[in-house]
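fyi for ur records
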Amino acid sequence: MNENKTVLGSSLFTYRSLLNNPDLSASFDSLEFGRANLAIDVNSAGLVTGKIYDTGWELDLFGSYQAGSPATLWFQGKGVVSGSLWIYDYLCYVVPVIPNGINQRLALVGSITRAIPHPDGSGGTSPAGVVNSFYAVAQN
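which gave:
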């Protein structure tokens, strides 16, 4: 039997985001937008804090949690990466416990939006407004 999964308190997730490309023939590897660790703390008042990070970079998170079916998290990640300010907005839902599911992990599914433009690492600029999808699976 599955235990009740919740994001209240502290959770560490493996995060992956994907380009929203509808071309079914696109290779899965070509869809990668990002990957990271996602540390989230949700207090009893519904305040979300934490960070999304990997080697050499991190964004601080701040936002809110709303209980429901499904529960909703809406937070912003903000930080300086390679000397440039990055800001991303995240909206996601907690995947409900699936009846008769086996070994289900706490998971989040949602959308990420680039809130401001930032350098793309090749001399260009990644524009604001880009929306992609993500999922995150609890590590513990």
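The chain has one domain: 9-138. thats all i got for now
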